[in-house]
Amino acid sequence: MERLDAFMARANAAYYATRDPYADFTTSPEITQVFGELLGLWSAVTWEAMGRPDPVLLVECGPGRGTLMADALRAIGGVAAPFAAALRLHLVETSPRLRALQAERVPDATWHDALEAVPPGPVLLLANEFLDALPIRQFVRRGDDWAERFVDGGAFVERPAAAPEGADAEDGAVVELCEPACDVAGHIARRVLRDGGAALILDYGPAESAPGDSLQALHAGRPANPLAEAGSADLTAHVDFAALARVARDVGATVHGPAPQGLFLTRLGLFQRTGRLARTQPPARAAALVQAAQRLAEPDRMGRLFKALAVCHPGLPCPAGFEP
Ligand code: SAH
User: Fold this and answer.
1) Which residues pair with 317 in a beta bridge?
2) Is 128 near ligand 1, meaning CB less than 6 Å away?
């Protein structure tokens, strides 16, 4: 018997170490090159607002195949040569398989197993669909009491537990808690306060904390049983943006958002940039680029459930895309 977070940690470590995640799901940077380009330009603009520190750490957590960073660096190289020269690339990735793929696309990087290992210094940090893969705990309201979910032989078992902090829910409702994601938010906040900088977190989840079981497994693009053999599918859960924002603000950082991804990317120029790129392409490719941008931005696709959150040094102005 294992607590759910221990099961999820073991399952995802095995999954990312041995499988090609992109056979089971796709992500924004894999849908269109414009996503990574816009995040690269966001970093360049934010670097200017920081007073152009040189050197500056450009950090990505969970870089997947390295697509986002390769697209970001290409865009930065095109319009922001001083930033390109100042940045030092640090990638946080635990999977040796994915590190090898990342090294093919982004050779000039230093890899780390954990964010804590990244050296100090002014920082710009990007994380897309990283926090949703971190292990969650689930608590279930049972009358006046609470239970916590464990996994035993492919099924949930409940054991009596203390009430999760601040939680209120109806009988039978599930409340989720992602301690590692809160730790990451706290670490980022302390870091930008100490050394200066900003972090941009994109992921899927509600803007306000709400009860509900969001644990999901994807296999070959279809929902699968999350409690099946550990490592056979990618396990994710909704990111609790309100909880992350609370942790970062408690430390003293300034938080912007969460903004719906569609609004955020549109403000950064998703459709203008896509249009400019599409005009240089043959018709079929041009149409595919426009459709890809729509997929990221439309509310009933990835535009609303996905959110962007910025964690910044309090001295920075409101970052691009978060204007009230
Ligand atoms: N950002 C990429 C990949 C998302 S998949 C994209 O948008 O396509 C999640 C990524 O986080 C993978 O690279 C995975 O190996 C990595 N990852 C998962 N758990 C991690 C952990 N605890 N520490 C570091 N990296 C982790």
Assistant:
1) none
2) yes
Q: What is the pLDDT of residues 104-117, one digit of tens each?
A: 999 999 999 999 99
Q: How far apart are CA 73 and CA 66, in angstroms?
A: 11
Which of 97, 130, 239 has the most ligand 1 atoms within 8 A of CB, as the residue to mutate?
130
DSSP 169-224: --TT-EEEE-HHHHHHHHHHHHHHHHH-EEEEEEEES-SS-------EEEETTEEE
Task: Supply 322's token pair.
Answer: 């978060």
* Model pTM score: 0.97
pLDDT of residue 221: 82
Stretch 135-150: mean pLDDT, rounded? 97
Mutating to test ligand 1, I would choose from 12, 16, 67, 235 the residue with most ligand atoms within 8 A of its C-beta, which is 16
Contact (Cβ atoms closer than 8 angstroms) between residue 147 and residue 175: no
Q: On the CB side of 115, how many CA atoms lie within 13 Å of its CA? A: 27
Chain position carrying tokens 């221990």: 6
| DSSP code, position 300 | I
What does the alpha-carbon distance between residue 265 and residue 28 come to, in Å, rounded to a whole number? Answer: 11
- Return the ligand 1 atom nearest residue 60 CA: 1
Q: Is 122 in the pocket of ligand 1 (CB under 6 A)?
A: no
The answer to whether 175 touches 139, Cβ cutoff 8 Å, is yes
Cα(296)–Cα(16) distance, rounded to whole angstroms? 24
Q: Pick the closest to residue 179 from 131, 217, 226, 223 (CA basis).
A: 131
Task: Compute the distance between CA of residue 255 and CA of residue 252 in angstroms, rounded to an integer.
Answer: 9
Phi then psi dihedrals of residue 241, to 5 deg: -60, -35
